[in-house]
Design goal:
The protein is an alpha/beta fold. The chain is built from 14 helices and 17 strands. It has 2 domains: 2-48 and 379-440, Roll (Urease, subunit C, domain 1), CATH 2.30.40.10; 51-372, Metal-dependent hydrolases (TIM Barrel, Alpha-Beta Barrel). The protein has helices spanning 78-89, 94-111, 136-148, 180-193, 215-224, 238-248, 252-259, 276-283, 293-298, 306-311, 328-343, 356-372, 403-411, 437-450; strands at 2-11, 14-23, 29-34, 42-49, 52-56, 115-120, 151-158, 202-203, 206-207, 230-234, 266-270, 288-291, 315-318, 387-390, 418-423, 426-430, 433-434. The strands form 3 sheets. It has an 8-stranded mixed sheet with strand order 3-2-1-4-14-15-16-17, with helices on one face. Strands 5, 6, 7, 8 and 9 form a 5-stranded parallel sheet that branches.
């Protein structure tokens, strides 16, 4: 048993002072006491449930900073960036992927996330030939999680076609490809690769997008994979909307609502190109919107309609996607500021009952737990002990209490306020640094040196 004592903590019933959280050997919260004595416990300042990072492509972290020049195309876009990404990934080996994934997971933990939901689609060798072990790359993601101690929800990605017309996959992209039969074998191997990891590990499946999987398969996904979360990119870019509409006769969200049986098991990523009625309809299915505001800004995706989504009871989870910058507070700030800029308003996502930061944090916790199939999101008995502690002595938190402290962290501070993080009771961040930072960083440095001429 380990005990953590906090000056203040966010509990399901609200804020409390002098809170003692007891964590059992299995990584679950064994008890929560209010007005408790701190004797013998690990002392912290402000204790919060730690959220899930709901969407990540780990390998893209090593591309950060390499794609900020305009190419020969007079209008740089997501689609030109995508071609550079395909060129880059053709250099990656399994050793590279493991080192990059470990570094990404370390950064997530240091930013305050306890769980990595990895949307994992880099499966095969350059040229598309499978490794001898079809799940080789999934094993490398699992090995990284074993080193970092992060909670893992592994989502092997089904990626079969290069577009809605069923065309073959192109260079680079071919490393992702599997027909349904081979994907089922890969998925089984990926699940087996998770066996050595702790009991809080979860898994699901991820049809990449409407463009990459066939119509019949998409219609049957919920029935074919009857348990676990299902994640999918949806309605991210205008050309994507146009392609789906041209081939299938409906906009992406419209088509998915009509044909895919969407419910609370689904997490739809981005959804930055939706009409108002689509936003309302998708929110009412109970599916989670997986938002990645920093990446969506970087790639020019568009602005998610968070005001309407939350107004219709929708849940949100936050991810770092391309991992160009892993910064939890900044993701939330970017999401809210996008709403303000679009609507010429302030505190766009606040309500009469909850401040902006509190509303965003609450929905992110619930949405992330749902989307990862993980028993987390609250400091209460029986949940996994996923916790993040902030420095109550930070200048940003002086005189700030309750919801205002969350607002101060998100809008005035940054992730340097994070002092400690536990993932299912594993105390992996201490004094703001991951306990294995030196070894993880050294391996990542060697990988970057190998890839210095990749673009």
């Amino acid at each position: 048993m380990q005990d953590i004592w906090a000056e203040r903590a966010l509990l399901p019933e609200g804020w409390a002072e002098e809170v003692r959280v007891s964590v059992a050997e299995d990584g679950r919260i064994a008890g929560v006491g209010i007005g408790a004595d701190a004797g013998g416990a690990k002392r912290t300042g402000l204790l919060l449930p730690a959220p899930v990072n709901v969407h990540s492509h780990a390998f893209q972290r090593a591309m950060a900073g390499l794609t900020e020049r305009r190419g020969p195309d007079p209008r740089d876009s997501f689609w030109t960036w995508r071609q550079l990404m395909f060129r880059f990934l053709d250099r990656l080996t399994p050793d590279h992927v493991q080192a990059i994934a470990a570094f990404v997971q370390m950064e997530m933990l240091e930013a305050g996330y306890a769980t990595n939901a990895e949307f994992h689609y880099l499966h095969h060798q350059p040229g598309g030939v499978p490794y001898d072990d079809l799940a080789e790359m999934s094993r490398r993601i699992a090995a990284a999680a074993d080193q970092t101690g992060i909670g893992l929800c592994l989502l092997p990605v089904h990626y079969q076609f290069g577009g809605c017309d069923g065309r073959d996959l192109g260079p680079g992209q071919i490393r992702f490809g599997n027909d349904r039969e081979r994907f089922d074998r890969l998925h089984a191997g990926a699940v087996e690769a998770l066996a050595p990891l702790p009991a809080d590990t979860t898994h699901g499946v991820a049809p990449h997008s409407l463009r990459a999987v066939g119509v019949d398969d998409l219609k049957s996904y919920g029935a074919r994979y009857a348990t676990g979360p299902i994640h999918m990119h949806l309605a991210e870019q205008i050309p994507e909307v146009e392609e789906v509409e041209a081939h299938w006769g409906a906009r992406p969200v419209e088509w998915a609502l009509e044909h895919m049986g969407l419910d609370g098991r689904w997490c739809l990523i981005h959804c930055t190109q939706m009409e108002p009625q689509e936003t309302q309809g998708l929110a009412e299915t109970g599916a989670v919107a997986g938002l990645c505001p920093i990446t969506e800004s970087s790639l020019g995706d568009g602005i998610f309609d968070g005001v309407r989504w939350l107004g219709h009871g929708g849940r949100i989870a936050i991810g770092s996607d391309s991992n160009i910058r892993i910064a939890l507070a900044e993701e939330l700030r970017t999401l809210d500021y996008s709403q303000r800029l679009r609507d010429h308003s302030r505190a766009a996502l606040a309500t009469a009952e909850k401040s902006t930061g509190r509303r965003l944090y609450d929905t992110m916790l619930a949405g992330g737990a749902q989307a990862a199939g993980r028993e987390t999101g609250a400091l209460e008995k029986g949940r996994w002990a996923d916790m993040v502690a902030l420095d109550a002595g930070s200048i940003h938190l002086v005189g700030r209490a309750g919801d205002t402290a969350l607002d101060a962290w998100i809008f005035a501070g940054d992730d340097r306020l994070v002092t400690d993080v536990w993932a299912a009771g594993r105390h992996r961040v201490q004094a703001g640094r991951h306990v294995a930072r030196e070894a993880i960083t050294a391996a990542y440095r060697r990988t970057l040196a190998d890839l210095k001429d990749a673009l």
